[in-house]
Every structure is written in structure tokens, then in C-alpha cells.
Design goal:
Chain A is built from eight helices and two strands. In chain A, helix 1 runs parallel beside helix 8, helix 2 packs across helix 5 and helix 4 packs across helix 5. Helices cover about 50% and strands about 5% of the residues of chain B. Classes of the chains: A mainly alpha, B mainly alpha.
Chain lengths: ~200, ~130
Amino acid sequence: MKKILVWDLPVRLGHWLMAGGFALAWATGDSESWRLVHVFAGSTVMAVAAYRLLWGLVGSRYARFAEFVRGPRQAVAYLKSLLRARPPHYAGHNPAAGWAIVLLLALALASGASGWLTYQEIGGEWLEELHEFLTGLMLAVVGVHLLGVLVGSLAHRENLVWAMVTGRKLGEPAEAIRGQRLVAAFMLLLWTAVGAWWLAR
Amino acid sequence: MKQVLLVLSLASGLAAAASPQELGAAYAAEAARQAPGFQPSARRGAEFYARRFAVSEKMPACSACHTESPLQPGRHAVTGKAIKPLAPRAEAARFSDPAKVEKWFRRNCTEVVGRACSAAEKADFILFASAAL
């Protein structure tokens, strides 16, 4: 196996925008002086998550939901295989990671929506409670995701964090995606900037 | 730890809903355990409310968002959003939910005062806000 291009630019940019936005939103959530930053960071996470839904349908091979969303039985089977000497290797997301992505996207949208409604003073105080519960849950899934990245990196002797930076992972040359999808990456930045600005007004 | 004990004592002493009097009494009882003979004071509460802690640039005092009087609607110093009056006389739901009261004391004391507020300060504050005419 060689290093091949697996993650296109919208996937990588979206990933780090979401990670950065979530970290910033989490760090500023309890502060009134940082309230505008919190709202903008949360809005960024929401805008990126929304774009990712579309990209999961029309993106490059490994960005598509159809490529990595598998049943719970396959996810459990993969997790069990990690205990063995040579777990099966996936060029794209493994079945357990697929679940983390779906959960994180769903939580990003639900948490973002409840936070946005709270900020706009639409709905009652229960939305604020829901927002806090959902972000706590999201932090827990982020923790599991990070643990999965660590275990996966060790099991496959492959730096998965760096792979999300360069887009390159181990795989057969024939499995590589062909381009970085520069136009879609530019559209993501534009969409996120306009979307976050609109939501955070 | 003290905060946890206080929350527990508040949660056990009061149901989910409470009156400002009950909530103030619970804080006063906690303060009396720390300093025997403690009596809440609306005057001390008023002084605390108006004091410039100057820890936060945009929110140097309670009044930065809540105005000079707890009877008046306030305005968020950062977002500009409207804030309902603090006084139960003007906004009946104030100081009726112990968890919410603890949450906002925790947040606002940390940012505006620069530390956690004591049970004595909270008892004084609630008495001041409740007594506001």
C-alpha cells in the first residue's frame, strides 16, 4: 500500500473548521463577555455541518455517506477486530468512525439549532437546558472520536490526524480520489462565512 | 466543595420552585453556618450591586447590564439583548428556580466579581432585589 489522496479539501477544511468552532464555542459558552464569539463559533459549526450533509451526497468517493455509513453490527465487528493482531484496513472511514461522523453531525445541528433558538429568544428556557445537554453529549462523542483516532492510528500504524491535514492515507493507488475539489472548498468557505454571519446576527 | 454543599442544601431544603424569601433564607442559613449571627442586609446588597469590581472591562459592575435599579429592564453590555428586570416585583419569575439562580450567580460572579460569591453576598443580593421599591 502507498499513501494516496483520500480526503478532499472540503472534507479537511470542514473538519478543522468544525473542530476549531466547537472548541471555541465550548471554551466561551459560560461567559457573557465572550457571548458574541460563542454564537459566531457555534454558527460556524452549524454552517459547516449543513454543508457536510450536502457533500455527503455529492462529494468525492470517501466523503459520501453511502461509502462509510454501515450498520451497527459492522461497527461492532470492526471494534472487536481491533483487539486482534491485524484489523481490516479501510482506505476511507472505518465502520465505527462512520458512526462517530453521523452522530457528531447530528449533534452539531441539534445543539446549534437549540443554541440559536435560545439566543434569538424563540422558545422557552428548556431550549437552553437542551442546548447544554446536547453540547455535553457532543463533547463526550468528541472524546470517543479522539480515542478512536488514537486507537486506529496505533492499530494501523498510520497517523490519522496528519491524514486529516494532508488528505493522504494508506491505500491502493487505484482507490485514490482524483482531485482536491478546490471549487467546492471555496464554496464551503463562502457558505460558512455567509451562513455563520447570518445565523449570528 | 462548598458550592456543591450549598447546591445540595438548597436542592434538599427547597423543591424545584421556591420563593425569593425561601431562597434568600436558604443562603442566609448557609452564611450563618459560616459566620454565626449573620443577618442578610438589603443595604449591603445594594452596595454590592452598585460596586465597581472593574474585573471585566465591558461588565465592571452588576449595573453594567442590569441598570442602576433592579426594577428596570436591563440591556446586555455585549450583545445588546434585552434583560428582564431582576426584582421579583417587576418580574415575578425571578429567584424562583434555585438551579437557575445558582447558575447565574456562578457565571456572573466569576466574570464580574472575579471570584465565586459567598452565601452571605447572595443572601444580601436577593434581599436587596426583593425589597427594591
